[in-house]
């Protein structure tokens, strides 16, 4: 049974993963490259829990217990020595992930699961540098992690049956619904999600309709909770561009990034996290 979780990366995905683990009664260590970055992630968790408290979704005792379960660190390799599960949530760059798995592979206990939150990169390649490919698995969470029910479990070429079953058990512990997919570029979710977003951007680029109407078409006509352009803003235009570039290289022309997407990333219009993407987002008042 997993009781101690190490989350490497305190950004949007990392702090979301840390929050759901802490709310599920697990002990969590969250690391980042600097103490300030780790503290920024913890502050995001505090704001998220406070919103849940205000809405009556949790009580003060649950909020305090979750926060009390989280420890901060800047030493992921050292923290790995006490983990039952390591979840990597660093930026979507293969070289960063390989460097991390080289470092933690020899430091984590022999029973520990080693998981990557990659949305499109090869789990098999990441596992290859870990020294324990049978214990490496993809755990692809979705943003915002505390609200999204799905957990995509990605099985690398060397991932054992026992690791997949342990990942399923972990999903139940944190109240997520898992699907299991084999390691292929984009897995199931990113491959389907980005192709829809890519076509929506091309439609906007060629003047088929406004961003609002393209999104509304999918929300009302196909019952999507959020249109593809607003979802791209939420994920981050730079993140979507990186995924498309990888899938274009691996799978072909249907994933070639639209020129408009490249232009917007170059202009710094990265989506909700910077206040402007396909839509504008007013700044939230600081608390």
Task: Write up what this structure looks like.
The chain has twelve helices and eight strands. By secondary structure, it is an alpha/beta fold. The chain folds into two domains: 4-182, Rossmann fold (3-Layer(aba) Sandwich), CATH 3.40.50; 189-274, N-(1-d-carboxylethyl)-l-norvaline Dehydrogenase, domain 2 (Orthogonal Bundle). Strands 3-2-1-4-5-6-7-8 form an eight-stranded mixed beta sheet, with helices on both faces. Helix 6 (123-127) links the parallel strand 5 and strand 6 (136-140). Helix 1 packs across helix 2 (35-54) and helix 8 crosses helix 11. The longest helix has 20 residues, at 35-54. The chain is globular. The two termini are 37 Å apart. The model has no long low-confidence stretch (mean pLDDT 96).
Summarize model confidence as the mean pLDDT. 96
Give the overall silhouette.
globular
User: What's the gyration radius in Å?
Assistant: 19 Å
Largest beta-sheet details: 8 strands, mixed
Spatial sequence of strands, sheet with the most strands? 3-2-1-4-5-6-7-8
Low-confidence stretches: none
Please identify, by name, the CATH architecture of the largest domain. Answer: 3-Layer(aba) Sandwich
The CATH class label of the largest domain is Alpha Beta
Beginning-to-end CA distance, first to last residue: 37 Å
Order of helices and strands: EHEHHEHEHEHEEHEHHHHH
Q: What number of structural domains do the residues give?
A: 2
* Share of residues in strands: 5-15%
The third-level CATH topology of the largest domain is Rossmann fold
Number of separate helices:
12
CATH superfamily of the largest domain: NAD(P)-binding Rossmann-like Domain
Helix content: 40-55%
Class inferred from helices and paired strands = alpha/beta
Number of strands: 8
